[in-house]
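The protein record filed below.
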Amino acid sequence: MARWPAAISLTAAALLIFACAPAGPEGVDTSILDREIGQRIGDPSTCVLIAERASGKIVHRYGTNTVCARTYPGCQDQPARTVEGLLKSLGPAAEAVASSCPTATDGSRSVGWAAGPVAGRDLVFAAVMEGQRALPGMIMTDRLASAFSAAGLE
């Protein structure tokens, strides 16, 4: 009998976690979107956020909470920031951002930043990748555009 309360608690916790997750862009299968992002820039150190342009409400997240919450160097005279901070800084114009810089003094690790509008949608995105194999921001931007298109975000 003691097992039922524990099982119910775990089920309730799982439901709460999934209830808080972004629902995804309208009309897009999030599993396909995740697959397309994963095939093009997927890495355990990657975070991609997609939000409504007008409200800033995040509708999709690719990456773990830990990676998405980390603060990384901003590059090119930008202050250190999180990917959500970059997303919020885009504003209504949603000008494209693509930058990269080393995160280790010996140059063995780097961070890449990419952000801008999602073509054909009233959405914006921001992405970060950090590590030994982090892609430069320009490459991330190109690959994400391809992933968005393949997933039906056009």
